[in-house]
Amino acid sequence: MNVALPALIVFLVLLPGFIFRARLKRAERTSLDFSPFGQVAAEAVLWALVVHLAWLSIAFLCCERRFEPLVLLKLLSSAPASQIEAAVAVGEHFRWIATYFCTLLFASYAVPAALRSAISRYRLDRGSSPFGPLFRFHDAPWYYLLTGADFARNDAPDLIVVSAIVEVGKGAVLYVGVLDEFRVDPDGQLDRVVLQGVARRPIENDKPGPEAGVTPADRFYPVDGDSFVLRYSEMVTLNIQYVKLTEQGSS
Hints:
Mean pLDDT: 86
Structural class: alpha+beta
Largest sheet: 6 strands, antiparallel
Strand content: 15-25%
């Protein structure tokens, strides 16, 4: 017991930090987290410290409950007598301690989602933001490329046009359409894009010179359908164009 109890206490104290970190991250890889263990542990310990300080402050202001570090140190001690003494103290306030950890674990699960939503809404994570290095989700490169999240709110694109070359038979076809949504696979790689208003043309029908008098409408053929799915594994190239709509006649 004198060995298992300190390990259980450390796990319980640090668990909110691991939950908070996992919920706050916007990561496109879902199969495994290949972050170095030292980095994961350091971030979790830091978040555990932050959430405990916040929750202890709330407990003191609302319930006038004080943290007793001596009791925690005795629980972490390997001496059976100290552990028993600390266990008796915990038993006397078990209802309050259980409430503290239950509410803290719930907050560690719910609050990061709201915080992440606020970061994305106010675009605090964009590359040009002064808060970018602090709030940027470095494990989600496709999110920034295919949502326009790196633009300021006033400069955010209204449309994202995707151009992709796909090999069909012995030739290559260029598909152009407006991005509707995208999906990534468990390894964080782009899996597919869903386009609307798609047009296509064989790549050999390249852009002619102005003297030919050929318009884009003459070279492209519309693709019937509401949603057109392109798999990333079948694309040769992928081009992204951010389109900002303006009122007719405005400068």
